[in-house]
Write a structure and sequence with these properties.
- By secondary structure, the protein is an alpha+beta fold.
- The chain contains 7 helices and 13 strands.
- The protein folds into 2 domains: about 130 residues, MutM-like, N-terminal (N-terminal domain of MutM-like DNA repair proteins, Alpha-Beta Barrel); about 120 residues, Helicase, Ruva Protein, domain 3 (Orthogonal Bundle), CATH 1.10.8.50.
- The strands form 4 sheets. A 4-stranded antiparallel β-sheet has the order 1-6-7-5. A 4-stranded antiparallel β-sheet has the order 2-3-4-8, covered by helices on one side. A 3-stranded antiparallel β-sheet has the order 11-12-13.
- The relative contact order is 0.14.
- The mean pLDDT is about 95.
């Protein structure tokens, strides 16, 4: 599932392909992923418009149109973008596409239909209503520590809660805990200020490194972070990798390496 770094890659792709081009028409093949209007309404709201810029906050990508309204592109588990010209290159599971004046098209591919596409008249109102936390790469350390203060949730649950900070998902949360040697089931309020600062710095270091490599969630470059360790069995020099449910998600950690704080 795309998390902050992968959605940042989509932002680069969208910006390079689709900004400052007039949409001649929007074709909707399946409007299930369009959440707050019908397919025909979505077509009317976007046809003739131009995308001027985009804004990413956590896992959310907002495309701003020339009337100051936005389209939310939330990729769910299997969402993807495909910029193409010939029909032969049309994505197999294209749910809708924007057709531009230059003859190119931007298709939204989503095999499992878990993506969420939303028309947003006012962006700040939407963010406030969603109670979407600050972006994990933007939030200052002081604000991170304040958000964590007194929380009884597991540290993994805290990192996953998009109301506290936006962008960290299941895989990166496991990586953050692994690198800081903290068990993901540790209670947030049982961690010292020093440990929370280490989690913050590690989180931003991991995400910044990942963002620089423009990863795509279907094919990661080289030996990606968790690919080096996130599978059950012995991990040389560290301990045994085990898995279980923490914060409702399948979680991996290294027994004997990551300390549990309760």
């Amino acid at each position: 599932m795309p998390e902050l770094p992968e959605v940042n890659t989509f932002k680069h792709y969208f910006d390079e392909s689709s900004l400052n081009q007039k949409i001649t028409q929007t074709i909707v093949a399946d409007d299930k992923i369009i959440r707050n209007c019908t397919g025909s309404e979505f077509t009317e709201l976007t046809a003739g418009r131009t995308f001027l810029k985009s804004y990413r906050r956590g896992k959310y990508l907002f495309a701003e149109m020339d009337n100051s309204e936005h389209i939310l592109l939330h990729f769910g588990m299997t969402g993807d973008l495909q910029y193409y010209e010939d029909e032969v290159d049309k994505p197999k599971h294209e749910r809708f596409r924007f057709e531009f004046e230059n003859g190119m098209k931007l298709g939204f591919d989503c095999p499992r239909k878990f993506a969420r596409i939303v028309h947003i008249p006012d962006l700040q109102t939407f963010i406030n209503d969603k109670k979407l936390g600050e972006d994990a790469l933007v939030i200052p350390e002081k604000a991170f520590l304040k958000a964590a203060a007194g929380k009884k949730a597991t540290i993994k649950g805290f990192l996953l809660n998009q109301n506290h900070l936006a962008g960290v998902g299941n895989l990166y949360a496991d990586e953050i805990c692994y690198q800081t040697k903290i068990h993901p089931a540790s209670r947030t309020n049982a961690l010292s200020k020093k440990q929370l600062k280490a989690i913050f710095k590690t989180m931003q270091s991991i995400l910044n490194e990942a963002v620089e490599q423009l990863p795509h969630y279907k094919e990661y470059p080289g030996e990606w972070f968790w690919e080096k360790w996130r599978k059950e069995g012995e991990l040389k020099g560290k301990g045994t990798v085990v898995s279980g449910k923490i914060a409702g998600r399948t979680t991996y950690w290294v027994e004997g390496w990551q300390r549990l704080h309760e």
